UniProtKB/TrEMBL annotation:
<keyword id="KW-0119">Carbohydrate metabolism</keyword>
<protein>
    <recommendedName>
        <fullName>UDP-glucose 4-epimerase</fullName>
        <ecNumber>5.1.3.2</ecNumber>
    </recommendedName>
</protein>
<dbReference type="GO" id="GO:0003978">
    <property type="term" value="F:UDP-glucose 4-epimerase activity"/>
</dbReference>
<keyword id="KW-0520">NAD</keyword>
<comment type="pathway">
    <text>Carbohydrate metabolism; galactose metabolism.</text>
</comment>
<dbReference type="InterPro" id="IPR016040">
    <property type="entry name" value="NAD(P)-bd_dom"/>
</dbReference>
<dbReference type="InterPro" id="IPR036291">
    <property type="entry name" value="NAD(P)-bd_dom_sf"/>
</dbReference>
<keyword id="KW-0413">Isomerase</keyword>
<dbReference type="GO" id="GO:0005829">
    <property type="term" value="C:cytosol"/>
</dbReference>
<dbReference type="Pfam" id="PF16363">
    <property type="entry name" value="GDP_Man_Dehyd"/>
</dbReference>
<feature type="domain" description="NAD(P)-binding">
    <location>
        <begin position="4"/>
        <end position="321"/>
    </location>
</feature>
<comment type="subunit">
    <text>Homodimer.</text>
</comment>
<comment type="similarity">
    <text>Belongs to the NAD(P)-dependent epimerase/dehydratase family.</text>
</comment>
<dbReference type="GO" id="GO:0006012">
    <property type="term" value="P:galactose metabolic process"/>
</dbReference>
<dbReference type="InterPro" id="IPR005886">
    <property type="entry name" value="UDP_G4E"/>
</dbReference>
Length: 360
């Protein structure tokens, strides 16, 4: 029996594949590499010393997806695949609705056909819109501030409807807060295309000298120092949360929603200070106007995940900064050129092995 990981070459997916392999799960990965490199998976194989199959495949192609279910005895699916850039989603909403929603529908259709009914879905704290107060519990009202967020809301609804229609499904909707950091090896991490939108990759690129200075979006919010407050969570803690959700699903059916956050909020200036301390790098910054659509303050009530999944985020903010910095400083150009892309195009069910196998 194997766990299918969609979007497994991406930032959170690759860290989750690593933890799954470390815990002895068999995995099969599918990803169309639209926002990632297969090199991340080769490094996952390197770190764990394990092999697994990778399909360069678009979830929009239902027939191709079926071939994976024909070949493997899939037990559960962790569904990371999706487009995630908020600003881009405002400019090309149809692309976001089509990719994120249709690919999820295709996945569920194929799962249904092959009687695979355990699904962990990557949702986001963005579904809380602008919360009235903090900490944010799963019971808070939901709203979307942009097309990206709306795809998450729509998919959550689709999955709830699916369960109503067939109570044998077991579905976990995991609402992530702000994932940052990287595996302690510094060999896998976040590799955004172009200029980063999110705070931590922007800071790390300022630290290596790729970007001149950080723009701090607003300093007049009702927070500790006027800058925006977020619940930053180490990507490895987040990855481990998925495994706890899988454990729970093995003996429960239903649709359950969990916040995955630390329950603590840090301001932008606090993050800059923590990063400077662990990296010994100065981060020049200037205060600019607030970013449209930003909420002043957002952090989780993560007690449901603690009580029901037995999961708690353990890695603290300095470790998050240190790991983000180790990844960025060891890989100034991210994963660089991906030699595995052509390899995976030639061979749809590529076996991902460690580096001695793939010498380009
Ligand atoms: P990512 O872009 O690194 O990973 C997503 C992966 O999905 C990429 O490898 C991409 O190539 C793949 N993909 C996209 N569309 C696909 C398709 N049609 N078929 C096959 N593969 C496809 O993003 P991430 O940060 O690892 O996020 C993973 C999931 O978590 C996403 O659904 C995202 O919306 C959600 N999420 C992320 C954050 C965050 O801050 N990173 C926060 C909340 C929720
Ligand atoms: C952003 C998205 C959100 C998504 C989340 C995780 C927007 C409006 N929101 O949220 O939908 O779920 O990423 O991918 O894009 N900041 C700066 N300067 C920067 C970058 C960020 O000051 O260059 C500040 C922001 O104003 C915010 C904090 O840093 O206060 C964190 O920003 P970011 O990392 O982009 O995450 P979110 O705003 O939480």
């Amino acid at each position: 029996m194997a766990i299918l990981v969609t979007g497994g070459a991406g930032y959170i997916g690759s860290h989750t594949c690593l933890e799954l392999l470390n815990q002895g799960f068999d995995i099969v990965v599918v990803d169309n590499l639209i926002n990632s490199k297969a090199e991340s998976l080769r490094r996952v194989s390197d770190i764990t010393g394990k092999e697994f199959k990778f399909y360069k495949l678009d979830l929009l192609d239902e027939e191709l997806l079926e071939t994976v279910f024909i070949e493997y005895d899939i037990e559960s699916v962790i569904h990371f695949a999706g487009l995630k850039a908020v600003g881009e989603s405002v400019n090309v909403p149809l692309r976001y609705y089509y990719n994120n929603i249709i690919s999820t529908i295709n996945l569920c259709k194929v799962m249904n056909k092959f009687n695979v009914k355990n699904l962990v879905f990557s949702s986001s704290a963005t579904v809380y819109g602008t919360p009235d107060h903090v900490p944010i519990s799963e019971k808070f009202p939901l709203s979307a501030m942009n097309p990206y967020g709306r795809t998450k809301l729509v998919i959550e609804d689709i999955l709830r409807d699916l369960y109503v229609s067939d109570n044998s499904w077991s579905i976990s909707l995991l609402r992530y807060f702000n994932p940052i950091g990287a595996h302690e090896s510094g060999t896998i991490g976040e590799d955004p295309n172009g200029i980063p939108n999110n705070l931590m990759p922007y800071i790390t690129q300022v630290a290596i000298g790729k970007l001149k200075e950080l723009n701090v979006f607003g300093n007049n919010y009702p927070t500790v120092d006027g800058t925006g407050v977020r619940d930053y969570i180490h990507v490895v803690d987040l990855a481990l949360g998925h495994i706890k959700a899988l454990d729970k699903m093995s003996n429960h059916s239903g649709v359950e929603t969990f916040n995955l956050g630390t329950g603590k909020g840090y301001s932008v200036l606090e993050i800059i200070a923590a990063f400077e301390e662990v990296s010994m790098k100065e981060i020049p910054y200037k205060i600019v106007a607030p970013r449209q659509g930003d909420v002043p303050i957002c952090y989780a009530d993560a007690s449901k995940a603690q009580n029901e999944l037995g999961w708690v985020a353990e890695r603290e903010i300095k470790l998050m900064c240190m790991d983000a910095w180790r990844w960025q400083s060891q890989n100034p150009n991210g994963y660089g050129k991906d030699t595995l892309i052509t390899e995976s195009e030639k061979n749809p069910g590529l076996i991902i092995k460690s580096k001695d196998f793939f010498v380009s």
